[in-house]
Specification:
Bound molecules: zinc ion
Number of strands: 9
Shape: elongated
Strand order of the largest sheet: 6-7-8-5-9
Largest sheet: 5 strands, parallel
CATH class of the largest domain: Alpha Beta
Number of helices: 12
Length: 283
């Protein structure tokens, strides 16, 4: 038993001498950079077989180097994780790179911008409260853009988000019950689910049943949902068709309605061009 204890592994004894390292007055190897010991002497005891032993240890800068390397590895892993999240987020290519800083703030959408920023900053709180958002307004006012900004900002922070549309989900699950189950689980695993363009899916019983199931299963998972739609809240609230009513009732339970106001971005762009042209003609 004692025999085994004294047999220190070879790498506990050998010290790799680096440039500048020196043997100190104590007869031990010291680091040339931080002057710290790279060896320590273990006093003679029954555990060292009755003899004094010199073993390797780590100097201060060695410890720091080790820590730095560990942090680098962790950062690299986090980047890989985020890249993987990005590619599995289902976000449309055209929205892949949008961020809050690419938001063209104007008097129409200031409030929406502020809300998106707040939602991102306070996501943990929103998540705990299961607080979602319903972005509604005319076509082309930047609802999908806003939703994608929120999604991308959160993914950048390492939070798993999936952004898709009912049209895409329905295309993927029609007639494939196994796929449907997988997709549902996968969507519900995401911390935030963003579904774009509510109301553009087909209005068949089948489609509406699936839409209800997706929203209801998110509700049951107790996780937040962000939706965008071209419908108005009034239209949704006044719909008497029971197939829609139960969908919208769930949505209003989960999502805070936010109107995305203003002229469409296309109109704004046209106006900007007109002004430019006018200036040019006046010159
Ligand atoms: Zn050192």
């Amino acid at each position: 038993m004692l025999e085994e204890l004294v047999k220190l592994p070879q790498n506990a004894i050998e010290v790799r001498m680096e440039e500048g390292d020196y043997i100190g007055e104590d007869g031990l190897v010291h680091c040339g950079k931080c002057k710290g010991k790279k060896q320590i002497r273990l006093p003679a005891s029954e555990f060292t077989g009755g003899k004094g032993v010199i073993v390797r240890c780590i100097c201060q800068c060695g410890m720091e180097e080790r820590k730095r390397r560990k942090e680098l590895d962790e950062q690299k892993e986090a980047m890989i994780r985020i890249d993987r999240m990005k590619s599995s987020s289902l976000i449309d290519d055209k929205f892949r790179e949008v961020r809050l800083k690419s938001f063209q703030e104007d008097q129409d959408n200031q409030k929406v911008y502020a809300l998106a920023q707040k939602y991102v900053e306070q996501f943990e709180k929103m998540y705990k409260k299961r607080q979602g958002i319903l972005l509604w307004g005319m076509v082309g006012t930047g609802k999908s853009f806003t939703a994608a900004c929120i999604a991308n900002e959160l993914i950048d922070r390492g939070i798993p988000v999936i952004m898709t549309s009912f049209v895409k989900i329905l295309q993927n699950i029609q007639g494939k019950p196994e796929q449907e189950k997988n997709l549902m689980n996968w969507m519900n695993d995401a911390r935030l689910l963003v579904i774009d363009d509510l109301g553009t899916e087909r209005n068949t019983d089948y489609a509406l049943e699936k839409v209800y199931n997706i929203i209801d299963s998110r509700y049951r998972a107790g996780k937040p949902l962000i939706l965008t739609t071209n419908m108005t809240v009034k239209e949704m609230q006044e719909n008497v068709d029971i197939r829609y009513k139960r969908i919208y009732d769930r949505i209003f339970e989960m999502c805070f309605p936010v109107r995305v106001p203003g002229r469409s971005w296309r109109e704004k762009e046209a106006a900007r061009r007109f002004d430019e042209m006018k200036k040019l003609m006046e010159e």
